[in-house]
Amino acid sequence: LLADATEAVNSMGVTSPVGSHLIAVENTPKTHNMVVCTLCSCYPWEVLGLPPTWYKSAPYRSRAVIEPRAVLADFGLSLPQDTEIRVWDSTAETRFLVVPMRPAGTEGWDAERLAALVTRDSMVGTGLARSPAEAAG
Question: pLDDT for 24-36, tens place per residue?
């Protein structure tokens, strides 16, 4: 997925203009990625479903670039101050999705169990993957 998101998505049977220009970026302990489309609402809907209303809103689109840490706080996400936040601007030609960090306590989990922890918000960077405890409850 990280090497060629387009190929990874298309290998799952999703073939569309969205799937032909897709880039995956990975969250790490030192870097958090966030996706926005400042011009409109370009979104990999065939992978993530329809975009939420807030993703298309002018306040999100402008503030995500200007003050990403404050926008994340609005979503209830507080990251350490030394975490770099990278904002990726989607376009009609190129879409992004975030590969969230693996939650602690999931070592040895198969892809199906891990997939249950991934949310739409974690794949646009306004949230984190759910913890095993959240998935169980």
Answer: 999 999 999 999 9
